[in-house]
Amino acid sequence: MFDGWKFLAGLGIFLFGMFMVEESIKLLAGRSLKTLIRRFTGTRAKALFTGIVSTAVLQSSSAVSLMVLAFVGAGLLTLANAVAVTMGAMVGTTLTAWIVAVFGFSFKIDALALPMIGLGGLGLIVLGQSARYVHVSKLLAAFGFLFLGLDYMKSSVAALAATIDLTTLPNLGLWAYVLAGTVMTAIMQSSSAAIAVVLTTLFAGVIDFRQAAALVIGANVGTTVTILIGAIGGIAAKKQTAISSLVFNVGTALVMLPALPVALWTIGRFVNPADDAVLGIAAFHTLFNLVGVALFFPAISILVRYLQRLFPEKQTVLSGFIHNTSTEVPEAATAALRSEVLNQLALSLSFIAGRYRLRHAVMPAVNVESQTTSQKGRTFDYEDLQRLHAEIFAFYARMQAHEIDTPEAMRLEPVIRASRSVMNATKNLYEMLAEIEDIGRHDNPFMVEAHRDFRERLERLMDQAATVIRAPDDEGVYDGMETFFQEVEAADKRFIRSCAQAVSKATIQEHEVTRLLMANRFFTQSNRMMALSMQALTRGFAFPQKRVDDHNQDNLQV
After folding, report:
1. 77-80-83-88 Cα dihedral, nearest 10 degrees
2. Whether the predicted model's global pTM rises above the 0.70 cut
3. Can you list the domains of the chain with their CATH numbers?
4. Is residue 558 very low, low, confident or very high in pLDDT (cuts 50, 70, 90)?
5. Closest Cα to residue 330, out of 436, 234, 407, 382?
6. pLDDT tens-digit profile of 335-359?
7. What is the DSSP secondary-structure string of 508-550?
């Protein structure tokens, strides 16, 4: 009798093993794999080979495909080479089927699984002092779980096979099995797990060789769901890469399904399905993807041109003041640059306020009548802020190409330095969010109070910035910046004193105070940079000379 719970447990253990394998290998070689993908994709042939190798090592085509999406989005990988990497990833992922077919069905599984789990578990305890050996132990245990889950699925499906007469089942047609494979893989988010289920049911005799091959075709189509989800809401290049994966798998499926008799005959020349059907399906899985590469690799240029027409790049200009300003008139260009940096300040702090859920949902706008439509009503994310900073610096670089009088250059330098500082401070505050929020969730009252102090200081920064943005030329605002800077310094000293008192009274542990002091250091540096930047952008356009060295030192440290 079929034991549904045992099958479900086996599937869960198998998926858990696959997850641990992927995570362990990422930790062992993740940085190297990223370097491999970034550095060895200069040509399409290299990109194809890199996709094969990286996926064979990482044991996850979805992970490699999502990594490729990130590199394409960052402009580190061309679309044509990204398509080649994803094609290679589909070939590389077939290694999992070979591992399962060879070791999972040709040996007594518990002879492999139980020692692996035992040795891996002991390694986690005995070798816990070494991070590398811990990851190796996890990897060993992960393969053990993978094989143990496969054994559970095998034994539960074997009982089902004994009660089923295949001749009495309706002939649903191969398309039904293709669809079933697609849905199964889309739900599991793992073609390797879906193919393991296919191999298990084939080994038990629940399905025949042709039906298993159709399920494998469906599993390849289903694996594109993950990368399609990863591209939702992304830039055009990400969508182009995701659709290329869909075209590759669906196109290959449309070719291979009608040609299935020829494909199975080819497999039969090397592996006799009657003797070892499981190994034959692993070979078919590889053949499917090799045929896809043979069909689409020569046509990458055509595919890329089509995708670029289907999802054209939108040349969005993020700047609101410098976009239509000529750099040939230094006075006008400097004024526009100052307005743009003020606007960068407003947008950056609006972003931070939203991330920290502060009462300042939106900072006041800068000269709304002068803005281009590209900024009105637009919500900026961190990547947008980086691109805006790049546009500001590019405008500054074009200004440098023209002869600028010394007085104008002296007004210009503090402004561009302020832009750089705003970006640095925004990056710090953006990356510190998780740490500060975690401090607030601590059960120690002093830690909770420190979290409240961070938020209050951030609120004070927002108040001061709103005043500067509303009236940057007001003399009172310029004079008030010195007071605000002293507040930042005083808050820093007050926080350090409170930490020292808490340690002396044993209110917090030493490791906790180190955590707080490091967070305060970066937080104070960010506030200091914001304060000095606002001072540079107010009436007079210049840092007081006594602050220049401190400001430059902060930029070097952060």
Report:
1. -90
2. no
3. 4-310 (no CATH), 330-557 (1.20.58)
4. very low
5. 407
6. 888 889 999 999 999 899 988 988 7
7. S-HHHHHHHHHHHHHHHHHHHHHHHHHHHHSTTS---HHHHHH
